[in-house]
Specification:
Blueprint: E1 6-14, E2 26-33, E3 41-47, E4 52-60, E5 65-73, H1 75-81, E6 89-99, E7 102-109, E8 116-121, E9 139-142, H2 151-154
Antiparallel strand pairs: 1-5, 1-8, 1-9, 2-3, 2-6, 3-4, 4-5, 6-7, 7-8
Length: about 160
Amino acid sequence: MSDLPYEIERKYLLRGRPPRTVGSPSLEIDQGYIPGERIRERVRRARGANETRYYRSFKSGTGIQRIEIEEEATKEFFDAVWPLTVGRRVRKRRYLVEEDGLVWEIDEFLDRPSLWLAELELDHADQIVRVPEWLAPFMEREVTDDPSYTNRALAR
């Protein structure tokens, strides 16, 4: 494997909000995509209970393993480029639920009623995923390889 920074994750479409998310830590996330075909840059504001953080990232590829370069950004940078993302934005609430040493990220799309996704970052692409009992009844199907469920595709 190369020295490129990879994000390895599985993604699942959910039928609704699992009760286990109630009381779990959460973030309010606004993310937008700067126009471009060759370079796909995303900016993100993540508001937690005690702080707001800003990020910029570049992703390339599809499926379970993609190149991802991410760095923390300033509020000033975010505010300067945010207007460029009009029409290419996602608003979501992300619940962080720990299970067996892994963190399930349960995303409620605030700009898309009834859209819920679960993501799980992995150490390697062939890692076995055991869906927790609390999550299994809410699983519709895996959408890791479905490009229509990337945040970029969902942005509007």
